[in-house]
Amino acid sequence: MGLKTPLYDQHLAAGARMVDFGGWDMPVNYGSQKEEHHAVRRDAGMFDVSHMTVVDLGGQRTLDFLRYLLANDVSKLARPGKALYTCMLREDGGIIDDLIVYRLDEGNYRLVVNAATREKDLDWIRRHAQDFGVHVNERSELAMIAVQGPRARERAATLIDAHWREQALALAPFSACYAGEWFVARTGYTGEDGWEILLPAGDAAQTWEALLAAGVAPCGLGARDTLRLEAAMNLYGNDMDESVSPLESGLEWTVAWEPADRDFIGRGALEAQKAAGGLRRFVGLLLEDKGILRGHQRVAVDGAGDGEITSGGYSPTLDRSIALARLPAGAQESAKVDIRGRLAAARVVPTPFVRHGKVRIDV
Amino acid sequence: MQDILNGDENMSELPGDLLYTKEHEWLRKENDGSVTVGITDHAQSALGDLVYVELPEIDQELDAEGEMAVVESVKAASDVYAPIAGVVVEVNEELSDDPEKINADPYGDGWIVRIQPSADVDDADLMSPDDYQSFLDDLDD
Question: What domains lie within chain B, and their CATH numbers?
Answer without folding.
Answer: 3-140 (2.40.50.100)
